[in-house]
Amino acid sequence: MENEDRFGRRVRALLDEADVRIGGDRDWDMQVHDSRLYPRLLGEGSLGLGESWMDGWWDVASLDGLLLRLMQARLDARVHGAGEVADGLGAWLLNRQRGRRSYVVGERHYDLGNDLYEAMLGTRLVYSCGYWRDASSLDEAQEAKLDLCCRKLGLEPGMRLLDIGCGWGEMLKFAAERYGVSGVGLTISREQAKYARQLCDGLPVEIRLQDYREPGERFDRIVSVGMFEHVGVRNYRTFFRVARRRLERDGLMLLHTIGGNVSRNRTDPWIAKYIFPNSMIPSAAQVTRALERRFVIEDWHNFGADYDRTLQAWRDNIEAAWEGLPAHYDERFRRMWRFYLAGSMASFRARRNHAWQIVLSPEGVPGGYVAPR
């Protein structure tokens, strides 16, 4: 009991810095059901926080509100799990996004089941930030984002478009139908490839279950939306070298990625274990270093605040759909998914993470590039 009290006092003192109370009556106050939580938090950091939530050791009315306050107080930088240093070293020494490892995130996350993503993502299966400037619904925001990508690339009929990390094929379908292009999509997810081929049936679109590093032909335009987060810092230069080799000299590339304020070589341990294995959010410094001598940066657009709104819409959709989904999405899975969405909301609301669209050209657009918005 003495140790539990000591651990509890330490946790309460830390939470007080974030204006969070244990047993309080505000939406973001924690309700603790198991006193083993306190040493677990101090010993395991963010991994222990997420897993103890999944185990039902604590609850909170507003999970995203709580996580936002923890991030704003930077408590995650104060409490590290015992394995985090070793994990960071391993991420640097081992190229976890190469060879067979590059397919792990497809198998463990994107192949969870199209039923889950169809319930969550809306009319279009677009698993990235919507563009809400003139939108009032998730579907409008995702269509606006797809159109923004096409306009930034200057797509015209007859062009060939390569989509690196094409997901369920929505970008290629939109570009082929609205802008008259043909294209090739690359994905490492079997479920996504199957869905995308059906979605794009009858259009001049080919979907390949293929890693981006495998050789291929040249294209007039390249787009990559929400895939760069799986490339890994050891492969950033390779990614841009491959893209440069596959792009015509007068072509354009659009990279849409989540970006962070700090350069890191690993992801959050809970996210790595349960959501995106081998993932890594790049910093601006890491991206620009990898781009040197390969591309000219024509435009860098940050609309990361829109991701919080996108995630809230996804949460509303999935919460309304749980009862109709198969039983293997059980209560533990639901708590895991809620923690994932809430933590993501908090990271964008705290402006730790951003949604970047970067337009690149091999040698610079003659006369300059005019960026659509």
Task: Let me know the average pLDDT.
Answer: 91
As an assembly, this protein is single chain
Categorize the overall geometry. globular
Structural class: alpha/beta
Counting H and I runs of at least 4 residues, what is the number of helices?
14
Strand order of the largest sheet: 5-4-3-6-7-9-8
Alpha carbon gap, first and last residue: 59 Å
Unreliable residue runs: 82-94
List the secondary-structure elements in sequence, H or E: HEHEHHHHHEHEHEEHEHHEHHE
Largest sheet: 7 strands, mixed
Strand content: 15-25%
Provide the helix percentage: 40-55%
Summarize the structure in words:
Residues 82-94 have low confidence and may be disordered. The protein is globular, with a radius of gyration of 21 Å. The protein is built from 14 helices and nine strands. The protein starts with a helix and ends in a 12-residue tail after the last strand. It has a seven-stranded mixed beta sheet. Strands 1-2 form a two-stranded antiparallel sheet. With 373 residues, the chain is an alpha/beta fold. The longest helix has 19 residues, at 331-349. Helix 13 packs antiparallel against helix 14. 45% of the residues lie in helices and 15% in strands.
Layout: helices, strands, pairs:
Elements (H helix, E strand, L loop, with lengths): L1 H16 L13 E2 L4 H18 L3 E2 L3 H10 L11 H10 L10 H7 L3 H8 L16 H16 L6 E5 L5 H10 L2 E6 L2 H10 L5 E5 L9 E7 L10 H11 E14 L8 H6 L9 H8 L4 E7 L2 H17 L9 H19 L3 E9 L12
Parallel strand pairs: 3-4, 3-6, 4-5, 6-7
Antiparallel strand pairs: 1-2, 7-9, 8-9
